[in-house]
Design goal:
single chain, Aspartate Aminotransferase, domain 1, Aspartate Aminotransferase, domain 2, seven-stranded mixed β-sheet, three-stranded antiparallel β-sheet, 42% helix, binds pyridoxal-5'-phosphate
Length: 356
């Protein structure tokens, strides 16, 4: 049976998007592709509030997370880590042969502007990685405050992952001064996995020119050269790009303000439901992601059983990630999900819970 997804990625994909993905194929060196590419880039610039470069990469998020490190880390990288994905990013940075230090924050807590300030003030780093929304723990770090701190260190290139937040809330890339903002599309964007987006500021591109060993597939300078011809260095996932084009139109038709408000509404529905049932939260209210909620299993629900029974009814449920599996569970509320979908899901859990 096909399960309706309430897990934090991949998320449900709208039928209109699936239809857009079956658009007849074109060649990526044809004029048709250049038009599609240019249109998508311009719509992404509008969504990201940037006038800078926006590139389309055929990979999942980790492709560009690795690419960004290979292109932008010169002297030494500060990896801010507060969960599974950010920890992994440190590992990836080291595996790329880069000098890097992990600054670890307890799971469930945000990366703070104070920590970023303290680390950058050492003068040891020319780059940093930060995950805006740590999807493993449902924590959103305070990006605007961190961005203010970053402005004190103009020699540091900032690489920020917004995989599970971009489009669900306002993230004005230029105003924040993010040098490389990157994300995959199977979470907040509600597209099938396989496409990743990244930006590069003038400072980021300048840095690339000084870095050796950028490789080819994710060489930012190759992306830049191709993009000037409305193209990509190698064959892109054209079907995905059609889907992205349609999805961006859908975002603007709904209205960005409305889209952000819908996410806030769904986050608040889940938080009331959890509180009403006696569950706790893995994160303080100020740092809870708007796209997913990580609950603590304070009333000892048999989460494995809940997951099984929900599965039998046609719903995919997440019983925690990595080392906090079982103690926590996550409910996603992002993408094209509507408050009514969430109501339906929580209603089914309510029917199952008394039998557990
Ligand atoms: C899912 C996720 C990733 C990893 O994405 P892949 O598409 O599996 O490469 C990275 N960062 C965050 C914050 C995520 O939520």
């Amino acid at each position: 049976m096909n399960k309706k997804l309430f897990i934090p990625g991949p998320v449900e994909v709208h039928p209109e998007i699936l239809r857009a993905m079956s658009t007849p194929m074109i060649g990526h060196r044809m004029k048709e592709y250049a038009l599609l590419h240019k249109g998508v880039r311009e719509k992404l610039q509008k969504l990201l509030f940037t006038e800078g470069k926006v590139f389309l990469a055929t990979s999942s998020a980790f492709g560009v997370m690795e690419g960004a490190v290979r292109n932008l880390v010169g002297k030494r990288c500060a990896n801010f880590c507060n969960g599974a994905f950010s920890n992994k990013w440190h590992d990836v940075t080291k595996r790329c042969g880069k000098e890097a230090d992990a600054f670890k924050v307890e799971w469930g807590k945000p990366v703070t502007p104070e920590l970023v300030d303290e680390v950058l003030a050492t003068g040891r780093y020319d780059s940093l990685t930060l995950i805006h929304n740590e999807t493993s723990t449902g924590v959103m770090s305070p990006l605007p405050e961190i961005a203010e701190v970053m402005k004190k260190y103009p020699d540091v290139v900032s690489i920020v992952d917004t995989v599970s937040s971009m489009s669900a809330m306002k993230i004005p890339v230029d105003e924040l001064g993010i040098d490389c903002c990157l994300f995959g599309v199977q979470k907040a964007f509600a597209l099938p996995p396989g496409l990743a987006i990244f930006t590069a500021s003038a400072k980021a591109l300048e840095r690339c020119r000084t870095i050796e060993g950028r490789g080819y597939y994710f060489d930012f300078l190759e992306f830049d050269a191709s993009d000037q011809k409305d193209n990509t260095p190698s064959t892109p996932c054209i079907s995905h790009i059609y889907a992205m084009d349609r999805q961006l139109d859908r975002f603007f038709t709904e209205g960005l303000e409305q889209r952000w408000a819908r996410h806030r509404e769904m986050a608040s529905m889940v938080s009331s439901w959890l509180t009403g049932h006696g569950y706790g939260f893995f994160t303080d209210p100020d740092y809870r992601a708007v796209t997913l909620t990580c609950a603590t299993n304070t009333i000892n629900t048999d989460l494995a059983m809940l997951k099984r029974l929900l599965g039998e009814r046609g719903y995919a449920f997440d019983d925690g990630y990595g080392k906090i599996k079982g103690q926590t569970f996550r409910i996603a509320h992002m993408g094209d999900m509507q408050p009514d979908d969430l109501k339906e899901f929580l209603g089914v859990i309510d029917e199952i819970l008394p039998a557990l």
